[in-house]
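Write out the 3D structure for:
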Amino acid sequence: MDAPTIIEKPKVDIDKDILHELEAQIHEQGQVVVHCIQTADFPTLIRIWPTTYLYDHHSEHKSELVHAENISYFPHWKAVDMGENYFTLIFSGLPKSCIVFDLIEHCDNQNGAFKVMNIPRNNSDVYYVQI
């Protein structure tokens, strides 16, 4: 399994109204948005566990998953097609002192868990990652 990568300037089509609403919520509530791109070699099933967190590298803080778009929560599955599939995870805010964090999903099959390590913090708290 290849290591996940952080995408600097992805090509993602997100409805402009949804994006505007999410950006407003981020600024109001201090939330962190992680847009994920998952590539499947064949049609498959995906889901996210509510035990998915952002971990600040320099404190004990962990941000909780508060909402997910275009992916099912455990125990349900979402069928996805071969190729690139997109979903968005919204987390509670990170501490202002945070400069690097990890996204880690804890599940009963840790081999299939989503993990993106060493994500550098940015000013917008909106991130694009390849899972």
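Residues 1 and 111 are 9 Å apart (CA to CA).
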